[in-house]
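Example A, followed by Example B.
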Amino acid sequence: MIATANALQVDVLTAGDWPAVSAIYAEGIATGNATFETTVPSWDEWACAHMGHHRLVGRVDDEVVGWAALSRVSTRQCYRGVVEDSVYVSRGHRGQGVGHALLSTLVAQAEAAGIWTIQTGVFPENLASLRLHVACGFRVVGVRERIGQLDGAWRDVVFLERRSKEIA
């Protein structure tokens, strides 16, 4: 166990968590405001895209209620300390601090690993995610207008970043 907050436990995400993690991911996809993805990838695809030492789940009474992970933004050496985060919380546990516990733990892990920038893109309609990121020290860099299409509609993305105060 990495951290505990009230009944919430933050743990390392493992392959055994994938059924619950993928169900939470599917809930996010279904909202139309969490990701450009339209289908949940396989465990192998997801695991290849997310950094092995920076994958977390939140559990309440042994039930996975949220997940967070980091992925590299580039394979170039100059960007080795720049990553992108993903945070998803199950429908029944939103607004209860799960996302904050996951993202705060992920930020602390990233800093300990020498990561100097965490970035993310959030649909402007996803106010909860925007508030979460700002509460965890992210700042809005700008809006990437019409950056991609989802279900045939162009979507904007608010681009946020968190720069480490510990790592130059």
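Example B, a separate protein, is given below in the same form.
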Amino acid sequence: MFEHTKAFSGFSVDDIPKARQFYGETLGLRLSEANGMLRLHIAGDRDTLVYPKDNHTPATFTILNFPVDDIDAAVDELRTRGVTFEEYDGLDEKGIQRVYGPPIAWFRDPAGNILSVIQEG
């Protein structure tokens, strides 16, 4: 039934203008806005919908992973853009988990949703 459907994911935020600034300016993603919602235009032609929700509760899990070639460079660059990385047990001094699976570092959007940069390969 859905084998030819171009499915997409979405998540909520509590403030669309703050989300527009963060995803568009801080992270540098292409985005568009219609009907009070944002679409993040991510490589691979799979847009992600960002919609407002008055009683938004931040996700307690990673909602969006950004693959990078060099996690150290990505973390350094994001820090210069004002991004603060999460502090969990077992992370190195940069806030990168390097023990289990690929290197990954987590941060939050202005609505408190958890995002990551993850080094593949």
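On Example B: The CA atoms of residues 65 and 116 lie 5 Å apart.
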